Automatic annotation (TrEMBL):
KW Signal (keyword) present: yes
Top-rank taxon, per record: Bacteria
Sequence similarity: Belongs to the bacterial solute-binding protein 2 family.
Gene3D superfamilies in the record: 3.40.50.2300
Signal sequence residues: 1-31
Domain named Periplasmic binding protein: residues: 61-311
Key words of the record: Signal
Name of the protein: Substrate-binding domain-containing protein
InterPro entries (UniProt xref): Peripla_BP_I, SBP_2_dom
Amino acid sequence: MQQSLTPRPNRRLRPRWTACAVAATALAALATGCGSSESGGKPADGRSLKIIYVRDVPQPTPFDAPIVKGYKDAGKRLGDDTVFQGAPANTRASDPAQEKRLLQNAVAEKPDCLITTFDTPSAQGPEVRKAQAAGIPVVFANAGYQQAEKYGALTYIGSDETLQGRTGGQELTRLGVKHPLVVSLTPGSLPLTDQRNAGFKTGYTGQTTWLYMSLKEAAGTTASIAGAIEAKLARDPSIDAVFTTGVVFAPAQLAARTATGSRAAAMTWATIDTNAQILGAVKAGNLAFALDQQQYLQGYWAALVCDQYVRHGLKPVDPVMATGPVVVTQKNLAGYLKAAAEGIH
């Protein structure tokens, strides 16, 4: 991994570089002035800062565990009170009304800095501006690509979403795929999937069949999503790959692979995002590759940016601190499995 505050996402990162090492490099860079010197918050007394991370996803989830770990690890090293507030269990992710309410509740606690997963600008944008009007700096993490400058956030920390999609398309091309089925959210559902979809179309220019699902359908059962994938495959025997654009589809994708039988072995299966199940599928050869966005860094760097801005007025120059994509295959899987055992993936 490159030793810079904003790693270039188009270079394949080596899993031997642990997230902690990269975060330490970023800390050193910020601490030595590798950012803006405009005034941030006021605490120069060394007190513990209260930082709140609002994430609009029901907790707990395996995908979010590295985010939370990175965030908490940074808090311990910085001596800050890092509070993580996910959506309540059994609620719907990316629900605009809930996103608005979560931000309002966080602002009412008057934190020194606020981090949010910025999924829905129409719902979250006004609340972000209210936080800033109250003197609370804001960082976007995990979602909010290309939105930081528009809404005055200190930076966005997460995957280059367009590059995620483009890299997926390029990898399928490299593997000789002729006709992929791409499973994604319906256009307009979330900015990040729209960006991934657009990126895929630049990375793969051949014949493509799309299976779009609404947020409600994507929140359905594994069986229902798998059934939709299986139906597409049954109708078109020329489809030779299945590519999914997010972790929410992975269980159904793997179930559909099993149900497809002998045909599945001759096909290419791949996805965006990683978790323990996905890494296990890569190890077993059931997925040719997965695109990792290094969630641990999203939590760690978000706390770090808040701390350094409030204490010293330092902030990243770049509105995007990219943590991915990283192509994970059997060739570089060993490092990821070790990191997963440590809670970093």
